[in-house]
């Protein structure tokens, strides 16, 4: 029993089952609403097509013989009551149609019938008009003014009461024996119509429910298949995000109910990618700072100590006499090693938290190369550049690598660094007059590989290297500015 209950809960928790139940209930209530609307419209039309002068006159003619016989037998109250009741019952239950599609006006109204039977002298043999007079109806005066009109069936008002006046004639000698006057009131009543519709639904709800169940199951299966398919797409994309690939984005139809959720997930993925990049950059920056501190506190200090030892040895005349040349050479090597070490420490230190601008850093790099290698480095710029710290770090490293390659490999004596901004795109061009190289002979050294990797970290970054043997090399770097 417990296993059966657990299976039932599992079955009910399935998406297609829940959607099927929801759609079945929705279909059930929708068909009930549709049945109410159609039944009300049909009854309203049937009501007005049933209440006609022809139908009222037809009923009166069918009962004329009984009324005539009741007047001839003046001592028979039973005949008069029978004649009146027959006419009232038929008018109250006025109907049209045949078979199972018969419509009765009692489904939409509470008809009132007032009958007066008089003899040929106008003496009332039986009358209900006194009851009608007590209602203080606005049609009362109109009924009295129509008293002279004989053998007529007419509307007292459009879609209002009907007044019928019939002369009763003896069939054998065509002698006038009396009059039959009828006031027939039947107005469409929405409340009565509503109750009749509820009664109709009470007898038909099982058939409506039986019809709505398969509709709900079919719609539930279709909807669950669609939702499951969309969720599967979202799962595939989020799985790629979990593996570190944030290039894929969730794309759903614009009219999809999951569109807002897919947009939220795309935004979340973009924020997560930015967070991971920031975290990676912070980790790299921390590691660079740690290496800079270690080099400063260990290697630099030892080189400084070595320099002191060499300076001390220089004071010893005996040592200078036998190894003076080597001591001077060692001291020069030590100074060069200290200079190179300071350059490495400076490059390793993060640029964040420093008030030096991006352009000033490029100027510092250019001045350093002028001093160290004795070359001409010219700067051309249309405006001062501004970048965020992350972009600035990669660009400066690309500039340094480009200058080093121009000096060491290109043997350049002049380098021109030019910048240009077009809307949100910044272009940096580094041109040298070195020996250049043939494009087909270009090798994938670590420096070039590092430059291409750094360009991929820039927003919409591109790198183009053009070189001609004996002429020089031009490196064009461009990126979208997000400062």
UniProtKB/TrEMBL annotation:
**Superkingdom of origin organism:** Bacteria
**PROSITE patterns tied to this protein:** HIS_KIN
Output the PANTHER family linked to this UniProt entry: NITRATE/NITRITE SENSOR PROTEIN NARX-RELATED (PTHR24421), NITRATE_NITRITE SENSOR PROTEIN NARQ (PTHR24421:SF10)
InterPro entries named in the record? HATPase_C_sf, HATPase_dom, His_kinase_dom, Sensor_HK_TwoCompSys, Sig_transdc_His_kin_sub3_dim/P
Top enzyme class of this protein? transferase
Histidine kinase domain residues = 395-483
What stretches pass through the bilayer?
A: 20-38, 208-227
Which organism's genome codes for this protein? Sulfurospirillum halorespirans DSM 13726
Keywords, comma-separated and alphabetical: ATP-binding, Kinase, Membrane, Nucleotide-binding, Phosphoprotein, Transferase, Transmembrane, Transmembrane helix, Two-component regulatory system
Name this polypeptide is given: histidine kinase
Report the EC number(s), separated by commas if there are several. Answer: 2.7.13.3
Q: Which CDD domains match?
A: HATPase_UhpB-NarQ-NarX-like
UniProt cross-references to Pfam families, sorted A to Z: HATPase_c, HisKA_3
User: Which reaction equations make up its catalytic activity?
Assistant: ATP + protein L-histidine = ADP + protein N-phospho-L-histidine
A GO cellular component annotation here is:
membrane
Q: Which GO terms describe its molecular function?
A: ATP binding; phosphorelay sensor kinase activity; protein dimerization activity
């Amino acid at each position: 029993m417990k296993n059966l209950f657990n299976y039932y809960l599992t079955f009910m928790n399935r998406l297609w089952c829940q959607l099927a139940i929801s759609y079945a209930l929705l279909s059930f209530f929708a068909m009930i609403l549709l049945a109410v609307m159609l039944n009300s419209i049909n009854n309203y039309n049937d009501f007005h097509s049933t209440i006609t002068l022809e139908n009222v006159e037809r009923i009166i003619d069918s009962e004329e013989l009984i009324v005539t016989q009741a007047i001839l037998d003046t001592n028979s109250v039973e005949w008069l009551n029978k004649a009146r009741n027959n006419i009232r019952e038929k008018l109250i239950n006025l109907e049209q149609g045949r078979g199972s599609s018969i419509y009765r006006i009692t489904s939409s109204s509470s008809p009132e019938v007032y009958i007066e039977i008089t003899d040929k002298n106008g003496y009332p043999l039986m009358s209900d008009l006194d009851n009608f007079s007590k209602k203080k109806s606005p049609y009362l005066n109109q009924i009295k003014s129509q008293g002279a009109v004989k053998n007529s069936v007419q509307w007292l008002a459009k879609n209002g009461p009907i007044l019928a006046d019939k002369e009763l004639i003896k069939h054998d000698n065509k002698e006038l024996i009396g009059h039959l006057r009828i006031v027939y009131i039947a107005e469409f009543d929405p409340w009565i119509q509503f109750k009749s519709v509820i009664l109709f639904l009470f007898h038909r709800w099982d058939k409506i429910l039986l019809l709505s169940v398969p509709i709900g199951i079919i719609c539930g299966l279709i909807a669950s298949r669609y939702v499951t398919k969309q969720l599967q797409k979202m799962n595939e994309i989020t799985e790629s995000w979990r593996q570190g690939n944030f290039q894929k984005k969730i794309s759903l139809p614009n009219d999809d109910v999951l569109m807002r959720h897919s947009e939220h997930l795309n935004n979340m993925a973009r924020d997560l990618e930015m967070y991971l990049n920031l975290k990676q950059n912070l980790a790299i920056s921390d590691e660079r700072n740690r290496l800079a501190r270690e080099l400063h506190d260990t290697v630099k200090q030892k080189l400084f100590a070595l320099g002191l030892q060499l300076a001390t040895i220089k004071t010893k005349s005996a040592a200078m006499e036998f190894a003076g040349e080597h001591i001077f050479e060692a001291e020069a090597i030590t100074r060069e090693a200290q200079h190179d070490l300071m350059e490495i420490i400076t490059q390793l230190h993060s640029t964040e938290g420093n008030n030096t601008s991006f352009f000033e850093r490029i100027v510092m790099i250019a001045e350093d190369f002028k001093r160290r290698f004795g070359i001409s480095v010219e700067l051309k710029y249309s405006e001062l550049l501004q970048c965020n710290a992350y972009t600035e770090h990669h660009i400066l490293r690309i500039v340094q690598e480009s200058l080093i390659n121009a000096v060491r490999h290109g043997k350049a004596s002049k380098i021109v660094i030019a910048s240009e901004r077009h809307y949100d795109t910044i272009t940096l061009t580094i041109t040298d007059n070195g020996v250049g190289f043939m494009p087909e002979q270009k090798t994938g050294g670590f420096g070039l590989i590092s430059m291409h990797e750094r360009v991929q970290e820039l927003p919409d970054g591109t790198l183009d290297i053009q070189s001609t043997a004996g002429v020089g090399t031009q490196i064009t770097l461009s990126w979208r500015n997000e400062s």
